[in-house]
Amino acid sequence: MTARIDHLVTSGTFSLDGGTWDVDNNVWIVGDDHEAVVIDAAHDADAIAEAVGDRRLRAIICTHAHNDHIDAAPALADRTGAAIWLHPDDLPLWKMTHPDRLPDHWLADGQVVEAAGTDLTVLHTPGHAPGAVCLYDAGLGTVFTGDTLFQGGPGATGRSYSHFPTIVESIRERLLTLPPDTVVRTGHGDTTTIGAEAPHLEEWIARGH
Asked: Tell me: the pLDDT tens digits for 88-133?
């Protein structure tokens, strides 16, 4: 059975460095009629569980540990029995939101997460956060970029644990080397493609954010 990508938008807040902002987050569910993985369990465990339905949830993969991407992860894990996966470099951020609950497993660069006939390859792409990852599936022709790459440029790097030169290097070396027709499914906002974003790298560097 062919894997498909389901998309859910959930709303809540993002808080860091003493500020709080209202945000809408993309939640991605990759799978078939029998099993699935969730990428970024944001804000609303009930809505995500409803979208998963009666499928077996194999994993909850966190692209990074800013609170708006992980706040519903423990509740969704408790409800479904799915394991939470995070890159270890984001543990300090994770503990800000969930000090009493660790992730179940650590993501590693080059690791492949398999579910429902898909192969999600972990690409460590620090910059927006130290442990930020993207998930690339050549078979589906898509990459889930979290807050590393958006339509129109890199994710924000103006707050703690972020670094602009690092995110530019991550995008240049890990993402823009993917096929141009690769669909970029982001943590917020609209999708784009690698080919649409690649020509603008020097503009982003010149802007410096």
From this structure: 999 999 999 999 999 999 999 999 999 888 999 999 999 999 999 9
Look at the block and give the residue holding tokens 């804000």.
43
Backbone angle region of 158, left / alpha / beta, with phi > 0 → left and psi within -120 to 50 → alpha: alpha
- Rounded CA-CA distance 112/120 in Å is 5
Which single residue is written with the structure tokens 């470099």?
89
pLDDT surpasses 80 at 209? no
Alpha-carbon distance of 56 to 58, in angstroms, equals: 6
CA 124 to chain centre: 11
Give the bridge partners for 8, in sequence order.
27
CA atoms 137, 82, 60, 35: torsion sign: positive
Is the pTM higher than 0.70? The answer reads yes
Nearest to 65 by CA among 100, 38, 102, 36: 102
Supply the angle between the helices 73-80 and 45-52 in degrees, to the nearest 10.
40
As a whole number, mean pLDDT of residues 58-66 equals 98
